[in-house]
Amino acid sequence: MNHPSDQSGQPADSSLAVHPALGGGQTDWHALVAQYGSPLLVLDCDIIRRQYRKLAQALPEVSLYYAIKALPNKGVIATLEEEGCGFDIATNGEIAMLEQLFIEPRRTIHTHPIKRDIDIRTALRYGCTTFVVDNIDELDKFVPYRHRAALLVRVSFPNPSARVDLSRKFGCAADEIPALLAAADARGIHVKGLSFHVGSQVADASMHAHAIHRCRDLITATRPDAVAPLSVLDIGGGFPVNYDGSVEDMDAFCGPIRDALNELPASVRVLAEPGRYIAAPAMTCITSVVGRAQRGARMWYYLDDGVYNSFSGQIYDHTRYPLIALDAQGEERPSVLAGPTCDSVDVIAEDIMLGEMAIGDLILAPMMGAYTAATATTFNSLPRARILTLAAPASLAIEDSNVVRLA
Ligand SMILES: Cc1ncc(COP(=O)(O)O)c(C=O)c1O
């Protein structure tokens, strides 16, 4: 087997290659594919643990709630439950997954700013009592449940430098907060704090710090003599990973966030909703060459995974993943890696230089844990990639036929 290298010829950092369950440094990816088929997503729960601990260490005063949407996977949830992490839920499907794992509802917050009545009732029936709103209609939906729910009001902080700018879609302007709080008071609804999400995969923490300062001003200025002052600030997600596989320094990234949090009143409890940072490095995709064709000057390799499946994040999450042509040999030439569907948008990489590959050769893509399997489709009636789970908690019963426990 060739030494893995990414498209640019750099050595790839695949922490998977050293996992004992895969044979240490001698992982035989071909044997794995021969046994379990292709495409595969290999999830390493030890990396979930490592990422959670690194973020918890970098933000010691912050309670972390994993954003399930990034990778809604029972192995991930069971691992994080053991670590003491909470869960950020957004839909009834996510609640169902937590219920199956007997996750205590007091460890959850519901952060979807727009909900149907059935969504609110389902969450309340489960036992989740913290919700997010960002407008008056949403506030009105809580009138019937005002004795059972406490709300966070989401403030928008547009951030064009984030890979995914979530304030485009959700959050009220900071100057709308006094009117919304007054409306909640008039309805007898308890608003316990503020929340924001400065966008996913941000370049640095400056927008987090700005948003914390702005929310501190709102918290301290808006209701100085309130009976129930704002006592929670949810700083959302956005914590970035390095898609080139190099290890990120989360402690340094969080420095400006820690400084800003130090300026909050001591009575304010701080939460965060990390998704990508915890999930992204924990999963590696393995896909096989199933066909090839020389078209003009370029060699096209057709793989059994593509943008309608695990690489869906290339479309929805605007992310490119490191690619390791495990078996490529000989002189490099302009190549294309295409997915298996009949659609021409289903291309993973164009105009990359690759040595020659044969049918059955493997491509590895690390860093594929966040917003990948979560958004995969079955277009063309092609199945989603099978997930092999490493180092899952012993207590986890995996019944899903698409999930195989390796260790
Ligand atoms: C409400 C909410 N919370 C948390 C997250 C997770 O964000 P990230 O993956 O950037 O940590 C998202 C991502 O879309 C979100 O919409």
What would you note in describing this structure?
The structure is a single chain. Helices cover 25% and strands 23% of the residues. The chain is of the alpha/beta class and 407 residues long. The chain folds into two domains: 15-44 and 280-405, Lyase, Ornithine Decarboxylase, Chain A, domain 1, CATH 2.40.37.10; 45-276, TIM Barrel (Alpha-Beta Barrel), CATH 3.20.20.10. The strands form two sheets. Strands 1, 10, 11, 12, 13, 14, 15, 16 and 17 form a nine-stranded mixed sheet that branches. An eight-stranded parallel sheet has the order 4-3-2-9-8-7-6-5. Helix 8 packs parallel to helix 10. The two termini are 24 Å apart. Bound molecules: pyridoxal-5'-phosphate. Pyridoxal-5'-phosphate binds next to helix 11. Pyridoxal-5'-phosphate is lined by residues 67, 69-70, 88, 111, 166, 197, 200, 236-239, 273-277.
Quick rundown:
25% of the residues lie in helices and 23% in strands.
> Which architecture name of the largest domain does CATH use?
Alpha-Beta Barrel
Q: Report the top-level CATH class of the largest domain.
A: Alpha Beta
What structural class do you assign from the helix and strand content?
A: alpha/beta
Rg (CA only) = 23 Å
- Distinct bound molecules: pyridoxal-5'-phosphate
CATH-defined topology of the largest domain: TIM Barrel
- Number of domains as seen in the coordinates: 2
N-end to C-end Cα span: 24 Å
Average pLDDT rating: 91
pLDDT < 50 stretches: 1-15
Main sheet overview:
9 strands, mixed
Instruction: Tell the overall outline.
Output: elongated
Number of DSSP strand runs: 17
| Helix run count | 12
Helix content: 25-40%
